[in-house]
## 1
Amino acid sequence: MAKAAIQAIGINKWFGEEPVRTHAVKDVSFEASFGEMLYVVGPSGSGKTTMLSMISGILRPSSGRVLVEDADIWSLSSDELAAFRLKRIGFVFQDYHLFPRLTTAENVAIPLILQHREWNAAVEEAGRNLEIVGLQDRAPLPPVKLSGGEQQRVAIARAIVSRPDILIFDEPTASLDGDTGRNIVSFVRAQLLTDQRCIVIVTHDARIYEFADRILRMEDGSITAVERSQLDAQ
Amino acid sequence: MPGILLIAYKLLINDRAKFAALLVGITFAVFLMIEMTSLFAGILSRSSSTVINIGASVWVMDPAVNTVANTIPLPDYVLDEVRSVPGVKYAVPLYSGAALLKLRDGTYQAANVIGLDDTSLFGRPQMLRGNIEDIFAENAFIAIKDAEFYKLENPQIGTEFELNDHRGVIVGIARVASSALFGVPTLYTTYSRALQYIPNSRFTMSYLLVEPKSPADVAAIKARITAAGYLALTRDEFVQKISDFYMYKTGIGTNMMLMTLISFIVGLSISGQTFYTFILENIDKFGALKAIGAKGRELVEMILFQATFVALTGYGLGVGLCATLIWIARSHLPDYAAMITFGNLAMAFVMVVIIAAISSYVGVRKVLRIEPFDIFRG
């Protein structure tokens, strides 16, 4: 059995104060393993992004624990948590959040620069990661010159540049057409998923469900179903 | 340069419109602040020109004197009294007054006349043409070649004029360290001739110039003269007294300070607003950096670096622009009194640091408040 990368144990999240207090995530527990591509799906407002933020060390749960390789990440100080995210987690945001004033290669190099790598070495390494996503010729261009699919690939290159063992994707196909979205996720599965890496994707795009190992369905802050993927059937 | 600061640098300068707006704001503010304070410094310097040019260690005057130009004549016996004070090496009289000259072409020109002690010629100017001894010749005057020299129709040695129906002759051309404030030319002559040519009240000495035997004697000399009912000031004290008068007892200082304050507010408004917009436009990127793993203090460093870089660049450009314009103005307007001092530069620098601090404080607050979770929520 694959080793657990992330364990969420009874996590809850409340927002606001009474009388407008909202219970966004309700006593959620699950595991994501290395070598697994886990989807979290559900309608808007179901709490999947909140849950994703809590397991990636961005949003502190109101209660419950999040273990990454058996270590409770929410026992870390804020600086330690930042260092944890920098080294262990690669983020691909829904809107990419690329810096329009930096070149594509410089954007990809950001996690390395935050790890105090020398600028030129970091940009060179970023260039190699752009090769992985097939955008080596776009390195000197600003992201605004790239198409949506290309920007998504740049965001992926940025997420993997520091070799994290957990990749978090937030609605990776939301801004892409159907074919491009499928190609991107197919690429992620084929090229980035390894036995030493866990990928968690939040989506409500049913067209890409086929690439998941497991799918957690969320509704109204709770996990309502856990489905094995069609890949198992194949 | 650390990579995080290089990111900050590139974010800043690659947003050319905002970077230009920030630079214009700071540069303009620095230019105005230095220009205003330099003008004031120039006016203050020129207001003390006679004190600077004569160069006496201690000046004795009536206590009601506010500026070197507004003289209150001293009775002759004060000279003897001061000379008798222990510690006084020597004391000489000085005449300083205004006169109306009738030039060769028949026009009248106001002038400042300095009458030097006949015996010592203490406070004599540096001769450019002619000999200082010629000041003892009949009707002799020495013209000072400063910004106002041309108003005497660019006199040569031998040029004649009239002063109160007396004939005057230029016997030398000299220069002094500092031009006068009020835009009139200056003539030097002997003390006795000044009294003879220019109508005076019963008392005649404008100032007494005192040289102490040693600097340690100054305090005792001042005390003795004060006890006699007169005021004794060192050169620096007299310059300060004149500066204080213009600064606090006329509207000049207040107006200059107001203009400087307005320049500061204009600079702060432009830079603060632009920097805040710059931060707002990049707030999601800062949030993304935070989510990726940037620490709060690294984001603060980025903003402080950007604010400091803009402030220092704007400061340099503002100082350069001001210096250039003053240089151009001086080459076309000899009377232009602006003078950049280290004090002006330091004050403008402090103001710019305050502008940068306030601008970056707003940005820092905004960036520290952004939660990475907000980036996920969109």
## 2
Amino acid sequence: MNRHSLMGHLALASPLVLLMCFLVYPVADVLGQGLFSGTGTSFYDVVVSPVTQRTFTFTVIQAALSTALAVLLGLPGAFLIVRLRFRGKSVIRAAMIIPFVLPPIVVVVGFLQMFGAFGILDSLMMAITGSPVSVINLAAGLPGIVLAHAFYNIPLVVLMVSASLERLNPEVEESAELLGASHFQNLRRIVLPHIIPSLLASAVLTYLFCFTSFPIVLALGQGSYMTLEARIWYAFRYFDYGEASSLALIQILVTLSLAYSYVRLGRMRQQGIAPTSNAKQVGLRDLNRVQVVLILAYLALLAFLVAGPIAAVVRSSIYDPLTRSYSLAGFENLLSAGTGGGLVPLVNSAFYATMSTLFAVALGIPLAFAHRGSKNPAASLASIMALLPLGVSAITLAYGLMRAIVVPLGLSSNPWPVIIVAQTIIGLPFSARSIEIALRSIDPALLDQADLLGASRLQKLFFVELPLLAPGILVGAAFAFAMAIGEMSATLFIALPQNVTLAVAIYQNLGVRKFVEAGAGALVLVVTCLVAFLTIDRMTSGSSGGTL
Amino acid sequence: MSVRMELRGLKREFSDGTRIGPVDLLVDRGELVTLLGPSGSGKTTTLRMIAGFIRPQAGSLLFDKDNVLRVPPRERGIGMVFQSIALFPNMTVFQNIAFGLDMARWKHEDVVYRVEEISDVLRIRSLLYRHINEISGGEAQRVALARALAKQPRVLLLDEPLSSLDPQLREHLQMEIRRVQRSLAITTIYVTHNQTEAFAVADRVAVMNEGRVIQTGSPEDLYESPRNEFVARFLGSGNVFSGRIEEVREHTVLVSVKEHRFEVRGQGQVGARVCFTVKPEDVVVANAGASNGYPAIVLSVIPQIGSHRVVLDFDGTQVVSLLTDSELVRQLSGAIGQRASIRFDPESAALVEPCSG
Amino acid sequence: MSAGQYPTRRDPRRVIMGLAVIVTVTVAAYTVWVWPRGPANKLIVYTYDSFMAWGDDPLTIDSRVFGPFMQQYDVEIEIVRLQTDANGVIARLITELERPVADVVIGIDNVLILQEPSQSVLEPYTPSNINLVNDSLIASLDPEHYVTPFDFGLVSLIYSMAKINATTHPEVANLTFSNLGTTEMASSLVTEDPHLSSTGLAFLLTEIAVYEKLLGQDWRQWWSQVHGYVDVLPGWTDVWQVWSTEATKWFLVSYGTDPAYSYYSTNSTPDAAVAPVYNAGSHYAWMQVEGIGLVKNGPNPTLAKAFIDYCLTSSVQSYVALNQWMFPVNNEVTLPTAYSYALQAEDVNILNALLPRSEIAANLTLWLDEWDIIFSS
């Protein structure tokens, strides 16, 4: 092994080593302590407990329902995004990312104002039926949870499936049409088989999100509905480390098998299909009246479900429900530097999210390269490691990092590096995944060509691979940034007051009834991510979703 | 500087059981050899072994006297144009052509000089500022060629470089490649599966099948005397007959094909199974009533440049003939499905071996 | 054409170096910015996020309340409000058990202290001026003195006077659990999840005390009845949020000082009123006592003890009412006028007496599990 290939192996191995130190070791430490030290409930008792079984059943069912709804509502959106020509498409596409960055409490408030009793929807229904009492409350219980999960995940389905649709060569469809296939046959035999892997993959990812959902379920579940993640949180609160670890282990096993199937589907999906820049498109004018009405109805539904809660957030940034007046105090607060001012959280959020995005990308690149040689065991290890964070509950991770890293290293009174570590880990699956897919779409002949032209490994990386990976890197970075800046669970546990992030500050401001301050913070989150994504959409000319 | 390149017994077996080689081939200094063969015959693999992307398990690869098998691709001094062209989409035309020079850390002025020089040779000077997605397919080919040649490689490898272009453009670029290759006198291997293309550009053609070079020679040699049935079928139009030698004469043999007998140039043992081929232009077609011909059914008459191509069925063997007699063609066109007769001189038929029957 | 018109390539190593420099400078700048200030040796107090956060000027409250102590002992005090509640504070102390950073912890209540992990991170300490605190509070909180009472409050039902009042719903004056059990009333109630909120847990204990001790009935009955109607949210913040924005939510579980806060902050008649639970001629409420304790193996035990003593004096206790909206434990402190709107301990029977500490300690997990079973059916 010469010096260069040694360096190469070191570069590929470094993310695995880091993940071992900062993810596997801390989590294993917590789980090992909880499972084997004999404090709290034993694994056996946890598994046989009817509460666990009920929780497990509910977790599985709500995730399935949420996934079904997200796919059902997301699929037409994917078709519209790809096939319909309309103005402002890139803005809509970029707006799709917003739900990812909203702290759960903001989503809940938005949902209540939209779908709750006497919310916008309810007021409308009351006006229509002339009823003096609340007619419909969709922001509670199972419907509330499922709707909120759909709100989070419809965009995911739309982005992923539309990317795959864009890659369908229009000639295939056209030749099918020439061969006499009807619209429906065309859809069933040509389009569906083409998008089914991406559809399944987005479904698996949605399922995974919903499976580990926690704040939404707590807030809308009225205490009756719990996911495994919520019970892990309960158990940690009551210092039952045995139960917490047992549940976390179950959850890791389930989510890892789901994550594994996602990776498999992702592999199937990439069968040398290049994106086509000229996907078949139609303008609104080319459609008949029934189609237009159907499309408008769908858009209205989507606007209600996705844009409604966002609009509520925007309004809350300038409307104070206590004084019933409009004010800009929230934005002034964001710029005030003192204790309780918004500037510190703003700077913290920007710094942590930027740093962790940088690290998530820096680790994601070698992980993707390691994954590329898809035959050796290191490749499988790399992809499992990259997906592991999706299966580890944030609170377990935070506990592990505190126990295994923060305290032994004496960072207790200045723990910000570990916040960046946690946010990096949470964003990593997204950056690694998107870079890896981008890497796979690079024509290997380009690399051979660079080789023949005398480029060294580093030159090849810099002048050929990285520029070609740029769109994938940017999209991965956008998702990692969104995940990092919206992250609350792990940050809450590790952070000291000086480390407060915007998401946490929003939560706190709501707690002390500073509504406009909270709203302004949420709006800043929304706008930051919108602008970031819009820029990236421009830079990658619209193929962003495909790299998820 | 160009080199004399020699492949000696290059061999590679893949895990899926595919075997390539041993491949033996000699390409002289400044010579252009085409590797011709059907897809899967090992042309591209051979090329990639030369480039260094595939490591042969046996054999040697000589550039002049040096065995370069242990030299990494980037130090072999090879310019290559890939089937997918593989221009770097993130760069301009200039940056693409300059890539190899930049990697070698040439001074910028020298790079500019060389890029302009080579782009003049390829007549793409006006494209240098364009982005890759702003040039046409034919222009992309020229850019790829310029990029491969910029560093003055010792050997040029072209892997089906024109396969994605339309016929007119392809023909034009074949001539261009030939012109540039001659003017630079660079040792070149050109891979193609298209016989016309191979013959048009090559000094010599090497026909490959099942991982080996079967026959090497000038286009004329190959066309006139294919060494075996495969070459004959692949190069000719498929006029291959098989039968048994019935009688041996002074310079010819008498071969019985089913109940008919043909006199064929060549020698052999009485009773041996042989194949022989007749080039389409040597097959004489006449109306059914003609004397000393063999009966055949007219299947189709297709007009093409300078002649008509007539396909006939001779006792289950397809026979192709090229006709220029327009009166005869008119008659045959009216007689599709009907009888005609064919014959050829013993001189124009040649025995080929081996023969699958 | 001159060479300058074509772009040259940048050296990748320069790009890497440039990026590395920018990152290093940013990280260094941030590190300096957040580097812990002040003397290395300072007294660190862990508490929950909203500690003393409800006053007129929460930004300067620490220096006003603890300034005199800092001057007297020439030491800096850092009040570290962790982004969590008291359970979270204990959880952090547990993770730091090997290398404690904090000296003192404030906010451990009379239920939390019953759990073994809380005691494991604390060192029992009896302040020299413990006589300032009413014995009953000490008995309620912790007779073993792991923690000393700091403040207390009464957890009760609060209703919005804008939404209902004694005219439309006369039962609010003497509200019983069976009143609350009707579909209409149960649907109008928002409470906190007892797993996640000490207020929610206090309400669960209220209900258990009333049913098991006063009525002699199975406590699970009422919860089964209201399950599906009552809205349970994770924490006090969420509950308050929903209660204040949703017209259908009349009642929330909160503190008896809410009307006083309303009066004080709006300077007008309170828009919220207290409805303590009623049974057979008396009103009842659960008392939450929050304590201050000495962290086991903390860096500055002597100073920490002096600090705990100081917290019982009126220099600290006089700030409790208007900043914490809890009652001070020092009985020499006079309450502000706004507190005339608050539910007073004298107005109600304290339910804590009915549920002995040992009974809670022994049954808490069981009760929560049974509550789960009711709510997940």
